[in-house]
Amino acid sequence: MAKPKKQPRPKAVTPKGFRDYFGQEVTQRTEMLRTIADVYHRYGFDALESSAVETVEALGKFLPDVDRPNEGVFAWQEFDEGGNGDWMALRYDLTAPLARVYAQHRNDLPTPYRRYAMGPVWRNEKPGPGRYRQFYQCDADTVGTASMAADAEICAMLSDTLETVGIPRGDYLVRVNNRKVLNGVLEAMGLGTDAAARDDVLRTIDKFDKVGEQGVRELLTKGRLDASGAFIEGVGLSDDQAEPVIAFLTSKADDTAGTLANLRSAVGDSKIGAEGISELEQIGELLAAGGYGADRIQIDPSVVRGLGYYTGPVYEAELTFEIFDEKGRKRQFGSVSGGGRYDDLVKRFTGQEVPATGISIGVDRLLAALREKGRIKSHDTGPVVVTVMDRDRMADYQAMVAELRNAGIRAEVYLGNPKNFGNQLKYADKRNSPVAVIEGGDEKDRGVVQIKDLILGAKIAESATLEEWKERPSQFEVPRGDLVAKVREILDSQD
Amino acid sequence: MAKPKKQPRPKAVTPKGFRDYFGQEVTQRTEMLRTIADVYHRYGFDALESSAVETVEALGKFLPDVDRPNEGVFAWQEFDEGGNGDWMALRYDLTAPLARVYAQHRNDLPTPYRRYAMGPVWRNEKPGPGRYRQFYQCDADTVGTASMAADAEICAMLSDTLETVGIPRGDYLVRVNNRKVLNGVLEAMGLGTDAAARDDVLRTIDKFDKVGEQGVRELLTKGRLDASGAFIEGVGLSDDQAEPVIAFLTSKADDTAGTLANLRSAVGDSKIGAEGISELEQIGELLAAGGYGADRIQIDPSVVRGLGYYTGPVYEAELTFEIFDEKGRKRQFGSVSGGGRYDDLVKRFTGQEVPATGISIGVDRLLAALREKGRIKSHDTGPVVVTVMDRDRMADYQAMVAELRNAGIRAEVYLGNPKNFGNQLKYADKRNSPVAVIEGGDEKDRGVVQIKDLILGAKIAESATLEEWKERPSQFEVPRGDLVAKVREILDSQD
């Protein structure tokens, strides 16, 4: 690196809302992404990695989050003598770039185009606890077909993916709803054309998860007092007008047939509503034929998240087991994936409607869930550490680690100041090393090495009273030639 | 996605200097990164993924490239009511972020800290042919030790890595030099303290690869006419003064001992020079002891790339086989990795010197090399395509792909408009599908399916005259129950 200029020392901090990931945090995510990619690939999806940077124009100056248009992206202007450089921005999701890529390369891409993509996205939002401005998404989308078979396939693939990464059946549920049914309801309410009222109703429906049936009823009509006692203005509908929305939100029955029947009455004779119900029916049939029962995937009109910007079916995968939140309260883990059909996205570029549907998996949340359930190792195993008793014989120690590595064993020689041997063992401890190797001049002369089982050693230290431990030695002297064999024996005994 | 606002249609293009990667371009890179990570991990290096965004302050407003300080990064100011937001930038390499991470977390990290990192970096530079503004790096560094054993280990690991990803011994060479030896040479020239003159000499030495010994001699003294006939001003040294530089650059002998002897005479009685030579000697001994001979790693003072900003040993890995460049001229493939010791980087933050050394592998160039040599598949195999003869029986077709996928076979059902069967086969062709499955009403009634070997079919089409092909059928009718078995049989026959 170039020498630093004379200037006050920079602060060694990540920018607000960003963080670093260490060791296992990185490798476990990489492993999960690979597992998910395998499933996507088996389903016929092709990999795509678009650039992290897009023109603001192509990205569209908006986020999926309808409440914050023109916000939420990290953008800058390309340098240009005249100051007329293009504006560029970091992608805020993997869907907008897909639309750009498909519009740009559509003549070379197959139609339909099944693609998966995984990588970081960036949101210029106020960071909060556990909310970072850079996080991973793992998407699969099918572009260029309006067939409900594409939507059913995505739901089935999502179910397979969750089970493949280690969420057992019964611990998750994929729920399916349809935006068109809601539009039908709005029609039935006589709000089919009143854009402002529709938006009010949509915003209210999005609160269903929080305030429940009675809360939504009040918010749609005369308003309500929220928990803090503040009065929330209502939308001002009559009770009769509000009823279809409630009927829609609460139409889930014991089985798909029952749910669909309830929806039919909720949309009355709305054409778009009927279309949406028939789409749900097709998806239900295809999934049933594929053996995906209600224990994995359900039609559930109470799924309202994201209804705002999808144009047809929407999906959400929730983990149904309970965890304890920051405040120690039991709650369901909740959503780890969402998606749906968005038929207008490519149209922005080409003018022609290109139907598309897909999902996005929140990889970091999924990893957190697996850690919660103890389904992935929560501690890193370090390398075997070959200690340095005699700094002039570094070549001897390097030869030992070379032997161990060639045998496929993770190993390293201590590269710090070897003067204080205690520091070397402290280092091995900090590295979670399973084994330390010691060869002093005396051992060298006698052609032996000392091998310390650090895991067993720690156990003995913990429970020194237990005779069973006392009887088992945690340090062994073996002929130099048996180094690799003995280390492997100890590693195997530790698993 | 939110509805686009009424505005002229956006152009569907990547920003200047950026590109998208499709299918195999992505999966082969992912695979290579995984292979490299395995080697790094076996050597005891831990994964680190720092955020892509850093404060400009932490990053330092400079690139490794000393010619363009204060340039080359994509930066923007954090929004802030008062307009006083922090400046943030995309990382331009993985080394500056490592320095920041180590300074920030040094109390929690082991010392020495061996870490590897892989991911995209961004350079705000004029894009050129094959030069993109986003590209992958794959680094390994050891922070917190001045021991030459760390440098030797990095060189050995680089050699192992190249062979593990598929570059055979003999097709690459890791070359090692030392910045301190050059400093010794400058001292011997009496330029030890004259910063300006030193920089002139450094810049000239960096041209050695291009202009050779005589060219450097002229540039150090009276100047020279370049290829275009333009006169390049010389540094203005006397011939005597220039000699040590030439001696340094040309001091490579048949073996390490000879090279070191030449270097000793080049640095005269310079203390720093002697120190650098002793460092090279230690590295040479450790590598020899590890069995890394001159066929893999060599001490080579003609390695000058990057000498400008490293503080000790520098390494470069070159692929030595020849390829044809854009203009069809034979040339060596050249460098795929470089690195060295930089002891001042963490000091920027902490004030204390923290010795560090590491390498960066240019993954995309390495992939290009493997493709050149035909060592990785250059074509993607698509999924088995189950065609749709009867759109009302989509469930039947979904059941077939489910069976194939459950057997681990990549498969998909055709999701486009099934009306024109020719389009379905065209699609399978565009997807490089190995096999197509066909089940019309007639087959359904008879309980059979048609299975087309598309690879064989293409061969037959190409060489229709060859009897051998004519005799082999490329389409088979099998009982529905034998679908998976027959498809696997065909796939196996295609490998």
Automatic annotation (TrEMBL), chains A, B:
One of its GO terms (cellular component) is cytoplasm. It is an enzyme of class 6 (ligase). It catalyses: tRNA(His) + L-histidine + ATP = L-histidyl-tRNA(His) + AMP + diphosphate + H(+). Residues 1-383 form the Aminoacyl-transfer RNA synthetases class-II family profile domain. Pfam families: HGTP_anticodon, tRNA-synt_His. Keywords: Aminoacyl-tRNA synthetase, ATP-binding, Cytoplasm, Ligase, Nucleotide-binding, Protein biosynthesis. GO terms for biological process: histidyl-tRNA aminoacylation. Its EC number is 6.1.1.21. The keyword Nucleotide-binding applies. InterPro entries: aa-tRNA-synth_II (IPR006195), aa-tRNA-synth_II/BPL/LPL (IPR045864), Anticodon-bd (IPR004154), Anticodon-bd_dom_sf (IPR036621), His-tRNA-ligase (IPR015807), HisRS-like_core (IPR041715), HisRS/HisZ (IPR004516), HisRS_anticodon (IPR033656). It is found in: Cytoplasm. L-histidine binds at residues 93-95, 123, 137, 141, 305, 309-310. GO terms for molecular function: ATP binding; histidine-tRNA ligase activity. NCBIfam families: hisS. PANTHER family: HISTIDINE--TRNA LIGASE, HISTIDYL-TRNA SYNTHETASE. HAMAP family: His_tRNA_synth. Belongs to the class-II aminoacyl-tRNA synthetase family. Homodimer. This is Histidine--tRNA ligase. It comes from Ruegeria arenilitoris.
